[in-house]
Amino acid sequence: xxxxxVTKMKLVPGDGESYPAMLVPRVWANPRRFNFDNxxxxxxxxxxxxxxxxxxxxxxxxxxxLGPVHAIYIHIYIFLGCMIGLTLFVGVVIANYSENKGTxxxxxDQRRWCDLxxxxxxxxxxxxPPRPDGKKVRALMYDITQNLSFKRFIAAMVITNSSLxxxxxxxxxxxxxxxxxxxxxxxxxxxxxxIMKNIAFxxxxxxxxxxxxxxxxxxVLGVIWIFINxxxxxxxxxxxxxxxxxxxxxxxxxxHATLKMLMLTVGVSVCKSFFIIFGMFLxxxxxxLAGTILFGTVKYGEGIGRRAxxxxxxxxxxxxxxxxxxxxxNKIMHDCMVQPPYCTPANxxxxxxxGNFTASLVYFCSFYVIITxxxxxxxxxxxxxxxxxxxxxxxDALLSYADIxxxxxTWNVVDIHQRGVIPVRRVxxxxxxxxxxxxxxxxxxxxxxxxxxxxxxxxHNGEDxxxxxxxxxxxxxxVDIRKALQLEELxxxxxxxxxxxxxxxxxxxxxxxxxxxxxxxxxxxQQNSLIDGLRATNNEPTAPVPExxxxxxxxxKEGSLDRDSEESEGRLVHRANKKAVVxxxxxxxxxxxxxxxxxxxxxxxxxxxxxxxPGLKKRSNRSQSSSKNNLPxxxxxxxxxxxxxxxxxxxxxxxxxxxxMLEVRDWWNEQLGYITQxxxxx
Length: 682
Description:
Layout: E1 2-3, E2 21-22, H1 39-50, H2 55-65, H3 72-101, H4 108-122, H5 136-145, H6 148-163, H7 176-207, H8 210-231, H9 235-249, H10 257-272, H11 274-295, H12 313-324, H13 329-335, H14 357-390, H15 401-414, E3 421-422, H16 427-433, H17 446-460, E4 465-466, H18 467-478, H19 481-484, H20 487-539, H21 551-561, H22 566-577, H23 614-630, H24 639-649, H25 659-681
Antiparallel strand pairs: 1-2, 3-4
Helix pairs in contact: 3-14, 4-18, 5-7, 6-7, 6-9, 7-8, 8-9, 10-14, 11-12, 11-14, 13-14, 17-20, 20-25, 21-24, 22-23, 22-24
């Protein structure tokens, strides 16, 4: 007698009643989905058990037919085959993925360098405007919104707002209106936060951050919901409020570092595994078309029914996505293996509802192996790689998150326009402000500082540089490139650094030579002014005029008549009309052991050039005209006498330039000409 169950409900028979039953023939038969009659069936049964599907049925049959001791067989197989064997299979897939990608052949430092480059590629500027020090109200709002306590308060409000979703909001329930009121108050708090940040950052600075844009969107939706709820207060308004609270919950992911890293891991993994996911979609679609052709008319069974079948490609795709998760895939496979007398055979495909044993075995086993053991494990390998990238130990990383964060803050100070680019000339300010592993001391590492500045200048031809340009340059300078870089990248980098060092050395030498040349020109200009003063004093007669006429007086007169310069003549006339200036002699001037010459200074009127004495020239011309008009008794013949009177009026004798001084002056002019010619050739 076998019971007949017409429903899955647990019905208890009443008094004098029993469950419906019927007589069935007692025969020896195998279980429905597995047996160990031959090697093939045993391997198929254990393959199903390997996927953790149907192993409880095998255990129960073994216990009932053979005894509890024989159930140890299936437990040992589960432990060795599934928990260890499949884990090793996953390790093999990940190792092959790493070898094909090339990361398995890298050293530890090279792997860290690859992880560092991925980190730097993901890093972005903070888009946080600097503190407005000149405006008190904005500075106060800035300090409040950037305070850690304020951020924690907002995070607590977000969690409180999200906790309102623990119960349903329905119009007929009494707790709905108080929950909506609390949500309205919290929405007002979030709107106040947005207003404070707009005052602190200005609307332009607030809009630059994507997280701020999302907060603004949710806040605007919250304000709209407040008006809708105030007017309607029905299930529609409560549904809109539910949606706003759910959207508000996602803002908390950007307020905590760990949650932010987790979201970055998910996002980066999805982007990197896009082609793997796309290939899986193509594979599922191909198998869905094949399943529609092979098993489109199979009768319903334990796994195949109205919602899970291969009657069309659409339902086939849904069925295969169910198999991807491993949900009862062995039952579907056995339903597609159905043979007579459990089905109706026919002459053609459209009239029979039987399955195909061989096709079902190959179809489902191949699909399950490719999808579950290969494709999904590749996704696991990508997620593990990105997880280790974001959650690696700070001590093992070449640059920690604190160093990258420090650079972001420093960049935020220098990039005042928040455009993500700065002029090359501002890079030196970033290098001076950096701390930690990226710190560069311009006093101690002066040459390295020059190399960094020139490297960015050379790479971008003096134009603007981006956030990642400066960060990549600093990353190269902060690691040991001989250990971290691979061979090709190392050779290229060493060649580039050699060029940078050579150019910086040339530039340093050129700057030093230009400085020396400027000093030489300044000294030569000063010496030229001194030589011009000596020449001016040398052109004047220096011998005193004796009281009685003699050959010396005649020689002085003849020298005076030979002067044709109007400037010198005017100066002599002016000196004749002025009071004589007496220059005191030192005791050593008259002796042979004393000084031979009294060197004139720049303050001496005789040393000054004509440009420095425009008034003297005019006054000398006036004195000439006045002397001609007011003293008609003086003729041209009395010019030598006027010169003699000017000389006798000065009671000192002016020095003469020796031949040694002339030789020094000629040598100096020759050196200056050589230096000028060399600079022109360069």
